[in-house]
Design brief:
Blueprint: H1 9-15, H2 17-30, H3 37-50, E1 54-58, H4 61-71, E2 79-83, H5 89-96, E3 100-104, H6 115-121, E4 126-130, H7 141-151, E5 154-158, E6 166-168, E7 174-176, E8 183-187, E9 201-205, H8 208-217, E10 222-224, E11 227-228, H9 239-248, H10 252-270, E12 276-277, E13 301-305, H11 310-319, H12 349-357, E14 358-361, H13 369-384
Parallel strand pairs: 2-3, 2-4, 4-5, 5-8
Antiparallel strand pairs: 1-9, 6-7, 8-9, 10-11, 12-13, 13-14
Keywords: Aminotransferase, Pyridoxal phosphate, Transferase
Protein name: DegT/DnrJ/EryC1/StrS family aminotransferase
GO molecular function: pyridoxal phosphate binding; transaminase activity
Length: 385
């Protein structure tokens, strides 16, 4: 059996090695390392793939979130609602811009932001909602967009973990994650479903004026060299990373299908064990999607372990050479940097429980049946004592 890895980037690279190497060599030979032809080519291909008018590449996913908020003109003190159960980057950029983060609880079944909690958190100072499409599937965007419209709020999709996923509306219409809100961000960190070989990110919007503003922000506020029209930052996707991403983009749907197939095999193995709660695809999409359902693209395959010592399971798996992750072990509202006396523990019942129960298993495009069988049988052996 091959060594089990949390993410097997080398195996994926070997499958597209010639194309990637050629693309990188092309950039090296033309020496257009910043904003070169490959960046613009990737941008256009990404826009077409997502069905969005504007994709603006940038240096990383955290920058993408920050730039999206800067582009909207949010002011210090404006409140921004987001999920408590996610990676810190989401709230980090809110605090960096001197906005006021308002953390709310998530759903127990799909880990995404809870709609009723969002409604409860809205005040006259609220200006935006940041739904995080956690672990590979969209938050309830239909409800979120309705709330935003009713309260005149911006919606900023954090799509770092769900590139290639689609959101299915109640009427069956589907839109790609990142093309629904007023603006969206994504990360091309190497372990993402679409990852580069360094760091990278992008911002998406269908708003022409907002896109123009963002294009200035990512390049020091310049539209014409040495003319600084807006306050900007230095956040540009380099051409080598764009070359890698453009080589991988045509494979993204197949990569996501490989993740989905691995997830199905995991879930099948665990179906008879009530202590193991497998990931749920939200919105009962199986009833309204066709066989090519892409509602969940499984950036992570995250279990909930009930009435079992989760941390002991982590140790057991590591002892058996099975990597795993706990995403996330501490709620954001309990992180030292983001504690606030406004928060009440009773408002975070789900998150406070999830941090004790969740465990993410190896998930990538190169998982094979032998590895999945070994991982699942090892977990079942631990559960059975």
């Amino acid at each position: 059996m091959k060594k089990i890895q949390m993410v097997d980037l080398k195996g994926q690279y070997n499958g597209i090695k010639d194309v990637v190497n050629h693309s990188i060599q092309e950039v090296i030979e033309n020496t257009s390392f910043i904003n070169g032809p490959k960046v613009h080519e990737f941008q256009k291909n990404l826009e077409q793939y997502l069905g969005v008018k504007h994709a603006i590449p940038c240096a990383n996913g955290t920058d993408a979130l920050q730039i999206a908020m800067m582009g909207l003109g949010l002011k210090p003190g404006d409140e921004v609602i987001t999920a408590d159960f996610t990676f810190a980057a989401t709230v980090e950029v809110i605090a960096l811009l001197q906005l006021t983060p308002v953390l709310v609880d998530v759903n127990e079944d799909d880990f995404n932001i809870n709609i009723e909690a969002v409604k409860k958190a809205i005040t006259p100072r609220t200006k935006a909602i940041v739904p995080v499409h956690l672990f590979g599937q969209c938050a309830n965007m239909e409800a979120i967009m309705q709330i935003a419209k009713a309260h005149n709020l911006f919606v900023i999709e954090d799509n770092a973990q769900a590139i290639g996923a689609s959101y299915t509306y109640k009427n069956g219409n589907k839109i790609k994650a990142g093309a629904i809100g007023h603006v969206a961000s994504t990360s091309f960190f190497p372990s993402k479903n679409l990852g580069c070989y360094g760091d990278g990110g992008a911002i998406f919007t269908n708003d022409d004026n907002l896109a123009h503003t963002i294009r200035g922000i990512v390049n020091h506020g310049m539209y014409e060299r040495y003319h600084h029209d807006v306050v900007g930052v230095n956040s540009r996707l380099d051409s080598i990373q764009a070359a890698v991403l453009d080589a991988k983009l045509p494979h993204l749907d197949n990569y996501n299908k490989a993740r989905q197939n691995a997830a199905k095999k995991y879930s099948k193995a665990f179906e008879d064990y009530e202590n193991i709660i497998v990931p749920k695809i939200s919105n009962d999409c199986s009833e309204i999607c066709d066989t090519s359902c892409d509602c969940h693209v499984f950036h992570q395959y995250t279990l909930k372990i009930k009435d079992i010592d989760r941390d002991a399971l982590v140790k057991y798996l590591n002892e058996h050479n099975i990597p795993c992750g706990v995403y996330y072990p501490i709620p954001l509202h309990n992180q030292k940097a983001y504690r606030d006396e406004r928060y009440n523990e009773d408002d975070f019942k789900v998150t406070n429980q999830l941090v004790k129960e969740v465990i993410s298993l190896p998930m990538h495009t190169e998982l094979d049946d032998e590895q999945i069988a070994y991982i699942t049988s090892t977990i079942i052996k631990f559960i059975n004592g």
